[in-house]
Amino acid sequence: MIAATMRAKSTPGWAGAAGRVPAPSLSTACRRRAAWWALLTGLLLPGSALAGGGVMLENDTCIITVGFYRAHFTAYQPQTRGDEEFCEDLPDVGEAVFVLDYLHDSMKQVPVDFRIIRDATGLGNFTRLEDVRALGDLAPLTVFYRPPSVEPDASYRVRHEFAAPGHFVGIVTAGHPTKDKTYTAVFPFSVGLDRFPWLWVAAALGLVLGVAALAWFWLGAGRERPS
To answer: Where are the domains of the chain?
Structure first.
């Protein structure tokens, strides 16, 4: 919907010295963007903002929620951005590395799979799990898929080479440790797009309209008071 900040100096930021990914320390831009998306989603989609899990900013760290599981989530573009960390949108076309650092020990015992599809919902960053399910067969939309695997070292990493810019949806599925049950989270993101800051514009416009409405109310009420 997610906090140590030290990195191993001899290795890229996405691979710690012992193979375990350090908890991410996000850039200011990434923190700001994730915070605004969390705020706007919470305002526009009350009661359902976390339906189906997803990536959220929590305590200056990106957390992905998959059912009752939680994991640190970070994306890297080592070829173009070094060890800079991203919570959702990726600025460049090319290689991307996605990392889940498990926060629940039981995730080390269950199969986890990772899929990336082209966004065919038309909803962009507001895409939720039910929107993805409504697409039906995901095979024609899939650009990357890693079959279920168990990662006992608590660090799950995948790489994918994005050949073109666009909007995508990541899908993470994890099994239950004892029951025949699975949990799914989705996280929409873009690759290689210069996004116009619609959130900032919407927030500023909302503030202006709110102040104008408040001023109109008080001034109008004042004019109607008897002398």
So the answer is: 28-194, 196-227
What CATH class is the domain 28-194?
Answer: mainly beta
The structure's pTM equals: 0.66
Element (H, E) at 175: strand 166-175
Stated length of the chain: 227
In b/e form, how buried is each residue of 173-189, taking b as 16+ CB within 10 angstroms?
A: bbbeeeeeebbbbbbbb
Task: Please say if the pLDDT value at position 23 is more than 70.
Answer: no
Decide: helix, strand or coil at residue 223: helix
User: Over the range 62-74, which residues count as b (16 or more CB within 10 Å of their CB) and which as e?
Assistant: bbbbbbebbbbbb
Residue 43 CA neighbour count, 13 Å, CB half: 10
pLDDT at 206: 77
